[in-house]
Amino acid sequence: GENVEQHPSTLSVQEGDSAVIKCTYSDSASNYFPWYKQELGKGPQLIIDIRSNVGEKKDQRIAVTLNKTAKHFSLHITETQPEDSAVYFCAASVGVKGNQFYFGTGTSLTVIP
Amino acid sequence: GAVVSQHPSRVICKSGTSVKIECRSLDFQATTMFWYRQFPKKSLMLMATSNEGSKATYEQGVEKDKFLINHASLTLSTLTVTSAHPEDSSFYICSASAATGANVLTFGAGSRLTVL
After folding, report:
1. Average pLDDT per consecutive 10 residues, chain B (116 residues; last block may be shorter)
2. What is the spatial distance between Cα B71 and Cα B55, in angstroms, rounded to a whole number?
3. Deepest in the core among B39, B92, B103, B112, taking most CB within 10 A?
């Protein structure tokens, strides 16, 4: 089955700096890659996603890049703010209506004011 | 956008009692819902996949008789923790994907279960 690895497990950045979180996956059939942000005591919220027919997607300060050949995708947060502090999870899924999502182990991001 | 409501957000119960957690898709129909358990500072551990109108598919190591899942309609799935013990204390999260369209997964806010 699919194996998703996520790095780093913890990340601290100064406010205003950029943060990058990387994930690799093993199943070349995976074609949907969402990123979730989880604040303490809450459920994960989708912040951005990318499908395998696209190499990059951007939404304001957040961007995701996908390298299908190397089987890795990354989350980029620019101009970080304290409210970006949270745990971020990547995931990989197979199929148009794939019911199986494979999650990374999470990255705890701390933005230092 | 898609909204998943999970209730209760927090529950405290005595050892030996049963607790039911509800997961509702508010503005879409969900043929499939997922139940996860999350330990502190850990990733999401998939417990079971709940399919509307059929039996849930449990992950290896998850006790079916302890964690009862019912998905009676396209908008509601329930997880019942039976005969709860302190080791069942955890953060339980549900998620749902729409019956139609692409497989975007929406999560509930989670339920913090504490068993005394």
Report:
1. 92 97 92 90 88 87 94 91 96 85 83 97
2. 8
3. B92
CB contact under 8 A, A44 and B104: no
Which residue, B26, B38, B93, is CA-closest to A45?
B93
- What does the alpha-carbon distance between residue B69 and residue B36 come to, in Å, rounded to a whole number? 12
CA distance between the termini of chain A: 41
- Across the interface, whether the CB atoms of A93 and B105 are under 8 A apart is answered yes
Tokens standing for A18? 């950029």
> How do A107-112 and A10-14 pair as beta strands?
parallel
**Cis preceding linkage at B8, omega within 30:** yes
Interface contact A105, partner B, CB < 8 A: yes
Q: What's the one-letter identity of residue A7?
A: H
Residue of A nearest to B33 (CA): A99
Q: Do the chains contact at B107 and A45, CB–CB below 8 Å? A: yes
Which of these, A69, A57, A74, A76, lies nearest to A28 by C-alpha position?
A69
Specify whether the CB–CB gap between A109 and A50 falls below 8 A. no
Residue in chain A closest to B43 (alpha carbons) equals: A105
Binary contact (A43, B44; C-beta < 8 A): no
Highest mean pLDDT among A15-24, A50-59, B72-81: A15-24
